Protein backbone atom coordinates (compact mmCIF):
# COMPACT_ATOMS: atom_id res chain seq x y z
CA UNK A 1 0.00 0.00 0.00
CA UNK A 2 1.29 3.45 -0.87
CA UNK A 3 2.08 5.80 2.03
CA UNK A 4 -0.24 8.75 2.61
CA UNK A 5 0.63 12.22 1.30
CA UNK A 6 3.57 13.58 3.24
CA UNK A 7 4.93 16.99 4.20
CA UNK A 8 8.71 17.15 4.50
CA UNK A 9 10.03 20.09 6.54
CA UNK A 10 13.57 21.24 5.79
CA UNK A 11 14.84 24.37 7.58
CA UNK A 12 17.63 26.16 5.71
CA UNK A 13 18.66 29.67 4.73
CA UNK A 14 20.28 28.57 1.46
CA UNK A 15 19.47 26.04 -1.24
CA UNK A 16 21.75 23.02 -0.86
CA UNK A 17 22.05 19.68 -2.62
CA UNK A 18 19.85 18.21 0.10
CA UNK A 19 16.92 20.29 -1.16
CA UNK A 20 17.25 18.78 -4.63
CA UNK A 21 17.75 15.27 -3.24
CA UNK A 22 14.56 15.39 -1.18
CA UNK A 23 12.53 17.14 -3.91
CA UNK A 24 13.43 14.32 -6.33
CA UNK A 25 11.90 11.75 -3.95
CA UNK A 26 8.48 13.38 -3.57
CA UNK A 27 5.38 11.58 -4.75
CA UNK A 28 2.82 13.68 -6.71
CA UNK A 29 0.77 14.48 -3.57
CA UNK A 30 3.77 15.12 -1.31
CA UNK A 31 5.25 18.49 -0.49
CA UNK A 32 8.63 19.78 0.60
CA UNK A 33 8.54 22.88 2.78
CA UNK A 34 11.86 24.72 2.71
CA UNK A 35 11.71 26.97 5.76
CA UNK A 36 13.85 30.11 5.99
CA UNK A 37 13.76 33.18 8.24
CA UNK A 38 12.71 35.81 5.70
CA UNK A 39 13.14 36.98 2.11
CA UNK A 40 16.65 38.28 2.81
CA UNK A 41 17.95 34.71 3.08
CA UNK A 42 19.79 33.40 -0.02
CA UNK A 43 17.28 30.58 -0.51
CA UNK A 44 14.68 33.22 -1.45
CA UNK A 45 16.50 33.61 -4.77
CA UNK A 46 14.84 30.30 -5.79
CA UNK A 47 11.30 31.58 -5.29
CA UNK A 48 10.66 31.70 -9.03
CA UNK A 49 12.41 28.43 -9.80
CA UNK A 50 11.16 25.87 -7.26
CA UNK A 51 10.77 22.19 -8.27
CA UNK A 52 7.29 20.66 -8.34
CA UNK A 53 5.90 20.05 -4.88
CA UNK A 54 8.29 22.48 -3.17
CA UNK A 55 7.13 25.52 -1.22
CA UNK A 56 9.17 28.19 0.49
CA UNK A 57 7.98 29.20 3.97
CA UNK A 58 9.24 32.23 5.90
CA UNK A 59 9.20 31.67 9.64
CA UNK A 60 10.18 35.17 10.75
CA UNK A 61 12.65 36.04 13.50
CA UNK A 62 12.59 33.85 16.62
CA UNK A 63 11.64 35.66 19.81
CA UNK A 64 11.84 33.18 22.70
CA UNK A 65 13.25 30.11 20.94
CA UNK A 66 16.00 29.05 18.58
CA UNK A 67 15.82 29.75 14.87
CA UNK A 68 15.60 26.00 14.23
CA UNK A 69 12.70 25.53 16.65
CA UNK A 70 10.94 28.53 15.12
CA UNK A 71 11.39 27.11 11.62
CA UNK A 72 10.06 23.68 12.56
CA UNK A 73 7.02 25.23 14.24
CA UNK A 74 6.29 27.37 11.18
CA UNK A 75 6.76 24.38 8.90
CA UNK A 76 4.37 22.21 10.89
CA UNK A 77 1.75 24.94 10.88
CA UNK A 78 2.10 25.47 7.12
CA UNK A 79 2.17 21.75 6.25
CA UNK A 80 -0.92 20.43 4.46
CA UNK A 81 -0.61 16.77 5.41
CA UNK A 82 -0.82 14.69 8.59
CA UNK A 83 2.29 12.63 7.90
CA UNK A 84 5.35 14.73 8.68
CA UNK A 85 9.05 14.30 8.05
CA UNK A 86 11.76 16.52 9.48
CA UNK A 87 15.17 16.72 7.89
CA UNK A 88 18.27 18.93 7.64
CA UNK A 89 20.30 20.45 4.83
CA UNK A 90 23.75 19.22 5.89
CA UNK A 91 23.88 15.55 4.88
CA UNK A 92 23.37 13.35 1.83
CA UNK A 93 19.87 11.94 1.25
CA UNK A 94 20.16 8.83 -0.96
CA UNK A 95 17.42 8.18 -3.51
CA UNK A 96 15.59 5.72 -1.22
CA UNK A 97 15.80 7.89 1.91
CA UNK A 98 12.14 8.87 2.08
CA UNK A 99 10.74 5.52 0.95
CA UNK A 100 12.75 3.71 3.62
CA UNK A 101 11.36 6.00 6.32
CA UNK A 102 7.83 5.20 5.13
CA UNK A 103 8.56 1.47 5.25
CA UNK A 104 10.03 1.80 8.72
CA UNK A 105 6.96 3.71 9.94
CA UNK A 106 4.71 0.96 8.63
CA UNK A 107 6.64 -1.51 10.79
CA UNK A 108 7.44 0.51 13.91
CA UNK A 109 5.32 3.65 14.03
CA UNK A 110 7.24 6.93 14.57
CA UNK A 111 10.87 6.39 13.59
CA UNK A 112 14.12 8.30 13.56
CA UNK A 113 17.51 7.81 11.99
CA UNK A 114 20.62 8.68 14.00
CA UNK A 115 23.49 11.07 13.19
CA UNK A 116 27.18 10.31 12.99
CA UNK A 117 29.11 13.56 13.32
CA UNK A 118 32.23 13.84 11.16
CA UNK A 119 34.72 16.54 12.14
CA UNK A 120 36.05 19.16 9.73
CA UNK A 121 38.61 20.78 12.04
CA UNK A 122 41.14 19.38 14.53
CA UNK A 123 38.90 19.70 17.59
CA UNK A 124 35.72 18.29 16.04
CA UNK A 125 37.79 15.43 14.59
CA UNK A 126 39.21 14.67 18.03
CA UNK A 127 35.70 14.69 19.51
CA UNK A 128 34.28 12.21 16.98
CA UNK A 129 34.59 9.20 19.35
CA UNK A 130 32.72 11.10 22.08
CA UNK A 131 29.95 12.07 19.67
CA UNK A 132 29.74 8.49 18.40
CA UNK A 133 29.14 7.22 21.92
CA UNK A 134 26.92 10.05 23.14
CA UNK A 135 25.24 11.29 19.98
CA UNK A 136 24.93 8.13 17.87
CA UNK A 137 24.83 5.23 20.33
CA UNK A 138 23.16 7.40 22.98
CA UNK A 139 20.31 8.42 20.67
CA UNK A 140 19.79 4.83 19.54
CA UNK A 141 19.93 3.24 22.99
CA UNK A 142 17.77 5.88 24.70
CA UNK A 143 15.02 6.13 22.06
CA UNK A 144 15.80 9.72 21.10
CA UNK A 145 14.60 11.48 17.96
CA UNK A 146 17.02 13.21 15.61
CA UNK A 147 15.66 16.17 13.65
CA UNK A 148 17.69 15.23 10.58
CA UNK A 149 15.59 12.17 9.80
CA UNK A 150 12.37 11.60 11.72
CA UNK A 151 8.90 10.57 10.48
CA UNK A 152 5.67 10.70 12.48
CA UNK A 153 2.03 11.69 12.14
CA UNK A 154 0.20 14.51 13.87
CA UNK A 155 -1.92 12.08 15.88
CA UNK A 156 1.22 10.49 17.33
CA UNK A 157 1.63 13.41 19.75
CA UNK A 158 -0.26 16.29 21.32
CA UNK A 159 0.56 18.75 18.54
CA UNK A 160 -0.81 21.87 20.23
CA UNK A 161 1.18 21.27 23.41
CA UNK A 162 4.29 20.43 21.43
CA UNK A 163 4.14 23.58 19.28
CA UNK A 164 3.52 25.72 22.36
CA UNK A 165 6.65 24.32 24.01
CA UNK A 166 8.66 24.42 20.79
CA UNK A 167 8.31 28.19 20.51
CA UNK A 168 9.97 28.67 23.91
CA UNK A 169 12.96 26.34 23.80
CA UNK A 170 16.17 25.64 21.86
CA UNK A 171 16.31 21.98 20.88
CA UNK A 172 13.67 20.81 18.39
CA UNK A 173 14.54 17.12 18.58
CA UNK A 174 15.32 17.21 22.30
CA UNK A 175 11.77 18.42 22.88
CA UNK A 176 10.29 16.02 20.32
CA UNK A 177 11.81 13.11 22.23
CA UNK A 178 9.78 14.18 25.26
CA UNK A 179 6.49 14.40 23.34
CA UNK A 180 6.83 11.44 20.97
CA UNK A 181 7.50 7.73 21.44
CA UNK A 182 9.97 7.07 18.67
CA UNK A 183 11.87 4.01 17.48
CA UNK A 184 15.44 4.89 16.51
CA UNK A 185 16.82 3.00 13.54
CA UNK A 186 20.34 1.64 13.44
CA UNK A 187 20.95 3.71 10.34
CA UNK A 188 23.45 6.51 10.72
CA UNK A 189 23.67 9.55 8.47
CA UNK A 190 27.08 11.21 8.29
CA UNK A 191 26.85 14.88 9.19
CA UNK A 192 29.85 17.16 8.72
CA UNK A 193 30.38 19.44 11.72
CA UNK A 194 32.79 22.16 12.70
CA UNK A 195 35.07 23.83 10.21
CA UNK A 196 36.84 25.97 12.78
CA UNK A 197 37.71 25.34 16.41
CA UNK A 198 35.40 28.21 17.42
CA UNK A 199 32.44 26.64 15.60
CA UNK A 200 33.15 23.33 17.30
CA UNK A 201 33.26 24.93 20.74
CA UNK A 202 29.90 26.60 20.10
CA UNK A 203 28.34 23.34 18.90
CA UNK A 204 29.78 21.42 21.83
CA UNK A 205 28.33 23.91 24.31
CA UNK A 206 24.93 23.52 22.66
CA UNK A 207 25.14 19.71 22.73
CA UNK A 208 26.06 19.69 26.43
CA UNK A 209 23.26 22.07 27.34
CA UNK A 210 20.68 20.12 25.35
CA UNK A 211 21.46 17.04 27.42
CA UNK A 212 21.47 19.10 30.62
CA UNK A 213 18.10 20.75 29.93
CA UNK A 214 16.27 17.66 28.71
CA UNK A 215 18.00 14.84 30.60
CA UNK A 216 19.70 16.32 33.69
CA UNK A 217 20.29 12.87 35.19
CA UNK A 218 22.19 11.88 32.06
CA UNK A 219 24.45 14.88 32.60
CA UNK A 220 25.27 13.67 36.11
CA UNK A 221 25.94 10.16 34.86
CA UNK A 222 28.10 11.41 32.00
CA UNK A 223 30.12 13.65 34.30
CA UNK A 224 30.60 10.97 36.92
CA UNK A 225 31.59 8.36 34.34
CA UNK A 226 33.99 10.67 32.54
CA UNK A 227 35.64 11.73 35.81
CA UNK A 228 35.86 8.19 37.19
CA UNK A 229 37.48 6.79 34.06
CA UNK A 230 40.10 9.50 33.61
CA UNK A 231 42.41 8.37 36.42
CA UNK A 232 42.51 4.68 35.38
CA UNK A 233 43.13 5.68 31.78
CA UNK A 234 46.08 7.82 32.80
CA UNK A 235 47.43 5.30 35.32
CA UNK A 236 47.27 2.39 32.87
CA UNK A 237 47.65 4.10 29.48
CA UNK A 238 48.42 1.04 27.35
CA UNK A 239 45.41 -0.84 28.65
CA UNK A 240 43.38 2.36 28.33
CA UNK A 241 44.41 2.85 24.71
CA UNK A 242 43.50 -0.73 23.84
CA UNK A 243 40.14 -0.86 25.65
CA UNK A 244 38.95 2.60 24.61
CA UNK A 245 39.87 1.99 20.97
CA UNK A 246 38.10 -1.37 20.94
CA UNK A 247 35.00 0.20 22.51
CA UNK A 248 34.79 3.03 20.00
CA UNK A 249 35.60 0.74 17.06
CA UNK A 250 32.71 -1.50 18.14
CA UNK A 251 30.34 1.48 18.20
CA UNK A 252 31.50 2.57 14.74
CA UNK A 253 31.04 -0.95 13.40
CA UNK A 254 27.56 -1.28 14.92
CA UNK A 255 26.42 1.69 12.83
CA UNK A 256 28.30 0.77 9.67
CA UNK A 257 30.89 3.54 9.98
CA UNK A 258 34.50 3.10 8.95
CA UNK A 259 36.58 6.02 10.20
CA UNK A 260 40.21 6.17 11.27
CA UNK A 261 39.09 8.46 14.08
CA UNK A 262 38.31 5.41 16.21
CA UNK A 263 42.05 5.54 16.93
CA UNK A 264 41.47 8.84 18.74
CA UNK A 265 39.35 7.15 21.41
CA UNK A 266 41.96 7.42 24.17
CA UNK A 267 42.69 11.17 23.94
CA UNK A 268 39.00 11.86 23.32
CA UNK A 269 38.03 10.10 26.55
CA UNK A 270 40.71 11.97 28.47
CA UNK A 271 39.22 15.19 27.13
CA UNK A 272 35.63 14.18 27.89
CA UNK A 273 35.36 15.48 31.47
CA UNK A 274 36.87 18.95 30.85
CA UNK A 275 34.92 19.26 27.60
CA UNK A 276 31.66 18.55 29.44
CA UNK A 277 32.54 21.02 32.16
CA UNK A 278 33.31 23.67 29.54
CA UNK A 279 30.02 23.09 27.72
CA UNK A 280 27.97 23.38 30.90
CA UNK A 281 29.87 26.42 32.14
CA UNK A 282 29.18 28.48 29.01
CA UNK A 283 26.51 31.12 29.61
CA UNK A 284 25.77 31.67 25.91
CA UNK A 285 26.42 29.89 22.63
CA UNK A 286 26.06 30.60 18.92
CA UNK A 287 23.91 28.51 16.59
CA UNK A 288 23.15 29.40 13.00
CA UNK A 289 24.53 32.91 13.36
CA UNK A 290 22.49 33.79 16.47
CA UNK A 291 23.68 33.90 20.06
CA UNK A 292 21.43 32.42 22.73
CA UNK A 293 21.27 32.46 26.50
CA UNK A 294 19.44 29.32 27.64
CA UNK A 295 18.57 29.73 31.31
CA UNK A 296 16.20 26.78 31.60
CA UNK A 297 14.30 24.47 29.27
CA UNK A 298 11.63 27.07 28.54
CA UNK A 299 13.58 30.27 29.17
CA UNK A 300 15.50 31.30 26.06
CA UNK A 301 16.88 34.72 25.24
CA UNK A 302 17.89 35.51 21.67
CA UNK A 303 20.80 37.93 22.06
CA UNK A 304 21.66 38.59 18.42
Automatic annotation (TrEMBL):
Any GO CC annotation of this UniProt entry: membrane
Origin: domain of life: Archaea
Cellular compartment(s): Membrane
Organism encoding this protein: Halorarum halophilum
Principal subcellular localization: membrane
Membrane-topology annotation of the record: Multi-pass membrane protein
Entry protein name: Glycosyltransferase
GO molecular function: glycosyltransferase activity
Gene3D superfamilies in alphabetical order: Spore Coat Polysaccharide Biosynthesis Protein SpsA, Chain A
Amino acid sequence: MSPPPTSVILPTIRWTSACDEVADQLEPDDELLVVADDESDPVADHLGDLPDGVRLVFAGEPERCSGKANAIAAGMEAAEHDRLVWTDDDFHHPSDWLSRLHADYAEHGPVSEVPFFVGRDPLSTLLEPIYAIGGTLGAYANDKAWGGGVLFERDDLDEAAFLRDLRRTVSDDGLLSEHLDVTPLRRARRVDVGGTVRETLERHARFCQIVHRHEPRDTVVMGATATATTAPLLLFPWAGILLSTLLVAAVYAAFGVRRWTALLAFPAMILQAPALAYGLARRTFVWGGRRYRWRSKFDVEVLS
